[in-house]
Amino acid sequence: EFSNVFAYNPDIIIIKLGTNDSKPINWNEELFKEDYQSMIDTFRSLPSNPDIFLCLPVPAYQIRWGINDSTITAGVIPTVQSLAEENQLLVIDLYSALADMPELFPDGIHPNEKGAALMAESIAEVLKNRYGTME
């Protein structure tokens, strides 16, 4: 999917990473930050000069497949916030938007339809605040 970005040349890019990165086998803060920065740099090279938004990942309500909330909150989120600050990018806080809603995560990790809709609404609200209504 990453390569499709170049075909579409979008005006807006929203990046949501970090849940799978929280697995102990995957988590390496330095590499995560370097790879994320490379992605930001690549997207900034697009001719459309897109606005880039970084999302904080949603909570993990169980430890499953190695995915865990403690790494998300203590590692992933601070790293994403740091990248946003260093690159002067806006953050969309999906973590807070879906906090205290374990019922929306049947397996403790993946949101159900209502959870996905809430994520979309949270993103739409940030975009409306940034660009106004697009009617």
Task: Give the SSE layout.
Layout: H1 4-8, E1 12-16, H2 29-44, E2 51-56, H3 69-87, E3 90-93, H4 94-97, H5 113-131
Parallel strand pairs: 1-2, 2-3
Helix pairs in contact: 2-3
Molecular structure report:
Helices cover 47% and strands 11% of the residues. With 135 residues, the protein is mainly α. Strand 2 (51-56), helix 3 (69-87) and strand 3 (90-93) form a beta-alpha-beta unit. Helix 2 (29-44) packs parallel to helix 3 (69-87). The radius of gyration is 15 Å and the shape is globular. The model has no long low-confidence stretch (mean pLDDT 94).
Sheet-strand content, in percent, reads 5-15%
Which strands sit side by side, in order, in the main sheet?
1-2-3
Average pLDDT taken over every residue: 94
Radius of gyration: 15 Å
Give the overall shape, derived from the CA principal axes: globular
N-to-C SSE string, H for helix and E for strand: HEHEHEHH
Q: How far from one another are the termini?
A: 28 Å
Main sheet characteristics: 3 strands, parallel
- Can you tell me the residue ranges where pLDDT is under 50 for at least 5 consecutive residues? none
Q: How would you summarize what this structure contains?
A:
This protein has 135 residues and is mostly helical.
What keywords describe this structure?
three-stranded parallel β-sheet; 3 strands; 135 residues; 5 helices; mainly alpha; globular
